[in-house]
């Protein structure tokens, strides 16, 4: 059978859903699409399927293997039984878009949405590309005799995250939507906002959330947002950022601005940044974070596991625990070695980390150039590596994500991040 190229939501409503062996699962009740701030077609995230018990569940589109005129087939007969709840950044195509009011972007003609169609991409995604509409006339709304028109999604305003004028919704509504999104996806969205709305969103975000988003923005956008904030709050944001990211941002500022912000920060927060700023950004010292997991030799495996379970710890840093003589704050006492998290999982909880430490893994010197750091990670298959000075003091740790960040072209966040967040085919 030829592949389906376009499917209207109304055609799917009520279709039976089967597993790969023909077992009946339920019926399609709606489509779930992810809202966007720009004018591009939103991605269809999945189906709302009603089971025989009238219990409604969500089935991701990647689980759908075929859509035919009389049935939908899934790749597996097993579905997540959690009851479906729509998230703030999602829209139900039949339940919310149908009968919604919209506008023709070029002329402002008032429209009523009758249906919407999705089309597959080469990446196996489905995009909501077409909208079936009728013109609205008079005070009573829909003109019964107006002709049905099929228009590209990009020709329609007033749907999704934009208001009826085609402008992004207010900061309050956007912040509600951002609650369910990853910082990298929020950053891609924020870059599409008008400057005024971007500033409103930044002013309304809490410090921790804004710090996470700022880390995912290109340098020019970071500097622009930081410059907009009052200096006291800008200093608070820098304190909430990962130290290596904060140091990278400070390095891009004018010396006077950098000095003023460092003075506004708490001394215990600014001192690690001052140390990082002494290294070139393309060396191990400039790439490292000064806050890895550091324990003394008499710590137990159970204590080490408790540290790496910390949900605030970046995933790459959680792959390795560094064992040092006191003090444990960087720069530490004498560096003993490291313990890989897989080793911790295999050892008795009461075992001391001194008994399982890896003393054979070489350490990076802070002056090591980016090319050497990249070869080091490739050679030893690491996600995290120690940076040690000539006197065997642990200065920090480099993580593989920071290495990739510096190996990619300077504009990768502008050209790649938005495409990744949009998840569209070229």
Automatic annotation (TrEMBL):
<feature type="domain" description="CBS">
    <location>
        <begin position="288"/>
        <end position="355"/>
    </location>
</feature>
<dbReference type="GO" id="GO:0016020">
    <property type="term" value="C:membrane"/>
</dbReference>
<dbReference type="Pfam" id="PF05239">
    <property type="entry name" value="PRC"/>
</dbReference>
<feature type="domain" description="CBS">
    <location>
        <begin position="357"/>
        <end position="415"/>
    </location>
</feature>
<dbReference type="InterPro" id="IPR006669">
    <property type="entry name" value="MgtE_transporter"/>
</dbReference>
<dbReference type="Pfam" id="PF03448">
    <property type="entry name" value="MgtE_N"/>
</dbReference>
<dbReference type="Pfam" id="PF00571">
    <property type="entry name" value="CBS"/>
</dbReference>
<keyword id="KW-0129">CBS domain</keyword>
<dbReference type="InterPro" id="IPR038076">
    <property type="entry name" value="MgtE_N_sf"/>
</dbReference>
<dbReference type="Pfam" id="PF26205">
    <property type="entry name" value="SH3_actinomycetes"/>
</dbReference>
<dbReference type="InterPro" id="IPR046342">
    <property type="entry name" value="CBS_dom_sf"/>
</dbReference>
<dbReference type="InterPro" id="IPR006668">
    <property type="entry name" value="Mg_transptr_MgtE_intracell_dom"/>
</dbReference>
<dbReference type="GO" id="GO:0015095">
    <property type="term" value="F:magnesium ion transmembrane transporter activity"/>
</dbReference>
<dbReference type="InterPro" id="IPR011033">
    <property type="entry name" value="PRC_barrel-like_sf"/>
</dbReference>
<dbReference type="InterPro" id="IPR027275">
    <property type="entry name" value="PRC-brl_dom"/>
</dbReference>
<dbReference type="InterPro" id="IPR000644">
    <property type="entry name" value="CBS_dom"/>
</dbReference>
<dbReference type="InterPro" id="IPR058838">
    <property type="entry name" value="SH3_actinomycetes"/>
</dbReference>
<protein>
    <submittedName>
        <fullName>CBS domain-containing protein</fullName>
    </submittedName>
</protein>
């Amino acid at each position: 059978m030829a592949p389906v190229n376009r499917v209207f939501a109304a055609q799917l409503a009520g279709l039976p859903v089967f597993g790969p062996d023909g077992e009946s699962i339920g019926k399609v009740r709606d489509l779930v699409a992810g809202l966007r701030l720009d004018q591009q077609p939103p991605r269809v995230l999945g189906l709302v399927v009603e089971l025989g018990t009238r219990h409604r569940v969500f089935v991701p589109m990647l689980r759908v293997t075929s859509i035919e005129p009389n049935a939908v087939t899934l790749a597996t007969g097993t579905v997540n039984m959690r009851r479906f709840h729509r998230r703030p950044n999602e829209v139900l195509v039949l339940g919310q878009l149908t009968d919604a009011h919209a506008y023709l972007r070029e002329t402002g003609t008032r429209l009523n949405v009758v249906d919407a169609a999705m089309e597959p991409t080469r990446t196996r995604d489905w995009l909501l590309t077409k909208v079936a509409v009728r013109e609205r006339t008079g005070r009573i709304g829909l003109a019964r005799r107006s002709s049905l028109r099929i228009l590209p999604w990009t020709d329609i305003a007033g749907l999704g995250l934009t208001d009826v004028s085609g402008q992004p919704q207010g900061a309050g509504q956007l912040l509600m939507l951002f609650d369910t999104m990853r910082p990298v996806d929020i950053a891609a969205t924020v870059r599409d906002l008008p400057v005024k709305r971007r500033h409103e969103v930044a002013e309304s975000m809490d410090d921790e959330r804004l710090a996470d988003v700022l880390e995912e923005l290109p340098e020019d956008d970071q500097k622009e947002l930081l410059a907009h904030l009052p200096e006291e709050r800008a200093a608070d944001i820098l304190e909430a950022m990962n130290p290596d990211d904060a140091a990278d941002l400070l390095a891009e500022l004018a010396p006077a601005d950098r000095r003023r912000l460092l003075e506004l920060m708490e001394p215990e927060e600014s001192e690690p940044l001052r140390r990082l700023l002494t290294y070139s950004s393309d060396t191990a010292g400039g790439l490292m974070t000064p806050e890895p997991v550091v324990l003394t030799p008499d710590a137990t495996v159970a204590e080490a596991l408790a540290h790496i379970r910390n949900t605030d710890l970046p995933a790459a840093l959680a792959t390795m625990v560094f064992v040092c003589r006191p003090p444990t704050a960087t720069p530490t006492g004498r560096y003993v070695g490291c313990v890989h998290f897989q080793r911790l999982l295999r050892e008795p909880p009461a075992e001391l980390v001194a008994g399982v430490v890896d003393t054979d893994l070489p350490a990076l010197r802070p002056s090591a150039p980016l090319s050497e750091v990249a070869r080091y990670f490739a050679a030893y298959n690491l996600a995290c590596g120690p940076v040690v000075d000539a006197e065997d003091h642990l200065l920090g740790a480099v993580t593989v994500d920071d290495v990739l960040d510096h190996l990619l072209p300077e504009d990768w966040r502008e050209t790649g991040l938005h495409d990744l967040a949009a998840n569209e085919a070229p």
